[in-house]
Amino acid sequence: RASLALPSAPLWRCPLSPWRLSPPHSGKDPAHVFALDFDGVVCDTEPESSLSAWRGAVLLWPELFGTPQAEAVRDRVLGGLCRTRPVVETGFENLLLARLLLEDALGDSAGEGTMERKIMGGSWPLMAAVCTTEWGVDETGLAEFFAKVRDDWIATDFDGWLAPNRMYKGTAEAMRSTPFDYYVVTTKNARFASALLDRLGGVDVPADSDRMYGLGSGPKVDTLATIMAQPEHAGAQLHFVEDRLATLRKVAKDERLAAWNLYLVDWGYNTPEERAEAAAEGIAVINADQWGCLLATGAAA
Question: Taking the model in full, what pTM does it have?
């Protein structure tokens, strides 16, 4: 099995934003409640995720990534990670993608991108499972390893880790000004999502807050069921905003969650084809202006 030796990562504390706000959820209008995905909805984290994947892959598979040949195609691999980002559900999958894309680049001097087409062809979960078996790694170990890679980067160069990330225009502003309760529901490690919200958006949702559901919180369908069962949300209109159609489909099929209004953003990590499919299935596809209206009034129109 591949060794998942973790890089040293001293404990780090996110420097507080100079415009950190008071907790955003006290005294809110109970008429509407929002569950908001993070990556691809609030924040574009793809550049950092891809760079972290390369850093981690160099440590995990140095015989492949620690070579002059690999370095020569690094930018091509990073570009491939960007283009295949829509298939990623959890960050550690970027490690698997990076290796597949590197092996493809090293064996494909013509630059035809055969592997990218396979990855985007609809069978990524099966491909990922085959990779973990063939390469002697497991999802839990990879997730812990990927988190430690980021911890190490943050501990030694917080500003360098922060720089590749960016908030989508208007997302943080809408979160800061909404009169309604919201939860962050993400497969990202909670401490990373919290740090980015604070430093890039001035939005205060601590990692240990009951308003933050991050990696390890369980399936999103169960999280939504937990949120809607809270007594203070009885009678509220429920809104779930995502950028992954596959996740929204799981919610739509869960009978417990019939009360949730579902929205797919038209930015983030989805494709035009997925947006068309979502609309055909009755899932609201919203743009940035509609996002702002939704969080301000409870209606996207």
Answer: 0.86
